Amino acid sequence: MRNIKNAILDYQHSSSSQPHGFKVTKSFVQIFQALWNNSSNTTSKLSYDFKSIIGNLNRQYSGNEQNDAQEFLLFLINTIHDELNLVANGRIRQQTKVN
């Protein structure tokens, strides 16, 4: 969990011009932290926000229909992976510019 948080912070400091940013990853981390800290007063709002973000990225998940859990988890993991790769690729580009 610490690596995801560091990646988000690094990305925010390195390039704030990306419109998509880390919406899914940030929201996922916020929900996880709220659940971990037993913050039940914010979990429902964070869950609603997370569902809205996911629904905006993939219309399959925008409604209230039942969806396949495996497909959703694959979509979620791939999206987080792609967002974190933006940071890794950005770091590599920045290091090559400095050298």
Describe this protein's structure.
Helix 1 crosses helix 4 and helix 2 runs antiparallel to helix 3. By secondary structure, the protein is mainly alpha-helical. It has four helices and no strands. Mean pLDDT is 78; it is low at 15-19. Helix content is 76%, strand content 0%. The protein is globular and about 35 Å long. It has helices at residues 2-14, 23-36, 40-57, 69-98. It has one domain (2-89).
Main sheet: strands, sense, barrel: none
- How many H/I helical runs? 4
Beta content: under 5%
| Residue runs with pLDDT of under 50 for 5 or more positions | 15-19
In quaternary terms, these chains amount to: single chain
User: If you average the pLDDT, what whole number results?
Assistant: 78
Radius of gyration: 15 Å
- Termini Cα gap: 30 Å
Shape estimate? globular
Number of DSSP E strands:
0
Write a concise synopsis of the structure shown.
The chain has four helices and no strands. The protein is mainly α.
Topology:
Blueprint lengths: L1 H13 L8 H14 L3 H18 L11 H30 L1
Helix pairs in contact: 1-4, 2-3
Record keyword descriptors for this entry.
globular; mainly alpha; 99 residues; 76% helix
